[in-house]
Amino acid sequence: MERMKALSAAERRRRRSLYVMATLAVLSTLVFGLLQKGGQVVTYGFVLDKEWVIIQQWVISSRNASLIFGGISILASAIAFIQFRAGKTIGVASAIGAAGIMMSFLSWAAAGKFIPFTGLLQGALLLSVPLIFGSMAGVLSERSGVVNIAIEGQLLAGAFVSGVVASLTHSTFLGLVVAPFAGCLISTLLAVFAINFAIDQIILGFVLNVLVYGITDFLYKKLLIPYQATWNSGPTLAAIKLPILWKIPVLGPILFDQSIIVYLMYAVVFVISYSLFKTKWGLRTRAVGEHPTAADSVGIKVNRLRFMNVMIAGMVAGLGGAYFTVGGVGAFNKEMTAGKGFIALAALIFGRWTPWGAVSAALLFGFADNLQSVLGIIGTPIPSEFMLMVPYLVTVVAVTGFVGRVRAPAADGTPYKRGESH
């Protein structure tokens, strides 16, 4: 009976999401398309290899483009609803519908302007990198039953240590190697106090974040600023073009002309996604996160597995922190993660604690962040102050509005003591 109620609740959430998407699709078609005055065009630019050129620019009436993309979103919403009624998955249709709504808005906002479309998507991917690493750390930790509010601190620790080591050794490789250990150190503190001493995990996470903020700020002022040439002027990773793949139209330059840390991100996502649902370790991880007592009854060392997974999560987040320094500007700046760890947590919730769901949410937040930058540069009818709020508004709407009620792993945040010695 409980399972039937849960399923019906899930169906209601999906139906509500479909209604929201269909309403937005109709409104975007009406407001951005039908009500828009004609006469202005929007130009989308594409960066392509000369040998594989299909189209370098697409010039179209802004009004027509908004109508086309709005129509696509309405059609996708209808298909998603039909699939929902038939009991099929609606992920692809929903993604197309959401993309159509976004493109309808973009075509209206960029009327009379040039949009470097490939650059827009590439920038969105790059802004999503630390969010994806952070959300993967959250998946590993919270699927095991430990709330990981300390992702922000793990990212910042990875960025700091990576930047300093790369500066001292003039080696991006060494900077990249040490970053996971910095994140692991913070996650070890989280594991010790949360698992061994049953400290409130949410409060503990915030304390660890403040601790890392304080330490890195102190060292930045006392060491990195006075001796910047030695301690804070590290090299950065160069882009690596993957043969053949980087020439694929549109997607090639975006996905396969990146630095090694982005390729490592791809690998991390695939490994975690596969391992969590296709291996014995993944089954045990989900078991200790959902029902640790049952897991203990069949011989699984609950706290040992939780401890190990939290440490691995810290390593993943630490690697993501290296993106800010050796993967980006080279030099470390205080608080340079700028709340990305908390947005990664929002992506985790939006993605319903699944790897691919979290990745999708992180890409959405990254796109919103880059979109406000691009539209702010080219100039739009929308006030610049509002554009600066877009990434955070998307985060809030996604978590509290569009997603609705979500269920974390049943034992998430609950210490387990029975049946194990520590």
Overview of the molecule:
The chain is mainly α. It folds into 2 domains: 2-112, no CATH class; 120-402, ABC transporter involved in vitamin B12 uptake, BtuC. The chain has 16 helices and 5 strands. It has helices at 2-34, 62-85, 91-109, 117-142, 151-169, 172-196, 201-224, 228-231, 251-255, 260-278, 280-290, 292-297, 302-329, 340-350, 355-378, 384-402, and strands spanning 41-45, 57-61, 114-116, 240-241, 257-258. The strands form 2 sheets. Strands 2-1-3 form a 3-stranded mixed beta sheet. It starts with a helix and ends in a 20-residue tail after the last helix.
Per the CATH scheme, the topology name of the largest domain is ABC transporter involved in vitamin B12 uptake, BtuC
How large is the radius of gyration? 23 Å
Measured as a percent range, the helix fraction is: over 70%
Q: List unreliable stretches of 5+ residues.
A: 1-6
Q: Secondary-structure element sequence?
A: HEEHHEHHHHHEHEHHHHHHH
Corresponding CATH architecture of the largest domain? Orthogonal Bundle
Can you count the helices? 16
The rounded distance between the terminal residues' Cα atoms is 38 Å
- The count of domains is 2
Please state the overall shape, judged from the principal axes of the Cα atoms: globular
